[in-house]
Design a protein that fits this description.
By secondary structure, the chain is of the alpha/beta class. Helix content is 41%, strand content 21%. It has helices at residues 15-25, 45-49, 68-83, 99-111, 140-144, 149-152, 182-187, 200-210, 229-234, 238-255, 261-278, and strands at 3-11, 33-38, 57-61, 85-91, 95-96, 115-123, 167-170, 177-181, 214-225.
Length: 279
């Protein structure tokens, strides 16, 4: 028997935020299980989170901290092996959402066999829609000029969304809260584990699109994201976050877009200029 949906939460040194989320969603009937994946925390989070364990709430730990993609792939494989869930809701610890929203996700997925991923409009802490609600898979040139203030404004990859509509197919969505078909996610290889952090959403969007699957953004439903609490706690320096982002972007360009040496060089030029501005 397939149990429809598992909520998966990846934790790294942020047990307090995870516990607050689990308290809010534990009684959501839409979830057969809540799976907490501790990504080898160094602050005793794993031991602290064990206190949440019930028949519904499962706490596991990765064998290493291989980054965001590694941790979520590890958890998804566990879901396939032990929990037999058709759908996985991937949730950051620092988000707020409703049972009705997740039910809507499942209804949308059940209507379309080619649909592999679904999300909704992300709100910031002030309940305003964020700028990057969804975007196209960028070209090599678009990746290269992302940090050029003069050039990037002429080449926008974000969709111009009409929020009066109910939904729209897109390439990529933010990773704070999304649902994917567990089998289809693993079929395309899940997240790229060479990327420690950042660019995972674009890479996953590329892989799903390349396989012929669709991603859907529901425009008349929302969830709230609390300022990327987890990332800012684990990597406090903005310059370090940028360095990791740049490494992931270069990897995406080389591995998936097959970018030329010229485009890689152009990308590094603009990236170095951005880092110098922070110094």
């Amino acid at each position: 028997m397939i149990k429809t949906c598992v909520c998966m939460i990846l934790n790294y040194n942020d047990a307090k935020t995870v516990k607050e989320l689990v308290k809010k969603i534990n009684r959501f009937p839409v979830f057969s299980h809540i799976l907490i994946v501790d990504n080898c925390s160094t602050d005793g989070s794993y031991e602290e989170l064990q206190s949440l364990s019930t028949k519904k709430i499962i706490v596991i730990q990765t064998d290493k901290n291989g980054g965001y993609g590694y941790g979520n792939n590890f958890g998804t494989q566990y879901i396939t092996k032990y929990l037999n869930a058709k759908y996985t809701l991937l949730s950051n610890p620092d988000v707020v959402f409703s049972n009705d929203l997740i039910t809507r996700f499942i209804i949308s997925m059940e209507k379309n066999d080619q649909l592999a991923l679904v999300s909704a409009v992300q709100l910031d802490v002030d309940n305003h829609p964020i700028k990057d609600l969804a975007w196209r898979v960028p070209t090599s040139f678009e990746c290269a000029i992302l940090h050029s203030a003069k050039l990037s404004k002429f080449f926008q990859t974000n969709y111009k969304l009409d929020l009066s509509e109910s939904e729209q197919y897109v390439d990529c969505v933010p990773g704070a809260l999304l649902m994917y078909n567990t089998e289809k996610f693993l079929e395309v290889g899940g997240y790229d584990e060479e990327m420690f952090l950042f660019c995972e959403e674009t890479t996953l969007g590329f892989k799903l699109k390349n396989k012929g699957y669709k991603s859907l953004l529901i425009l008349d439903e929302t969830y709230r994201h609390e300022h990327s609490v987890s990332i800012n706690k684990s990597i406090q320096q903005k310059s370090k976050q940028l360095e990791i982002l740049f490494q992931s972007r270069i990897l995406f360009m080389k591995k998936y877009l097959r970018a030329s040496g010229f485009m890689i060089g152009l990308t590094k030029f603009f990236q170095n200029r951005s880092l110098k501005k922070l110094q």
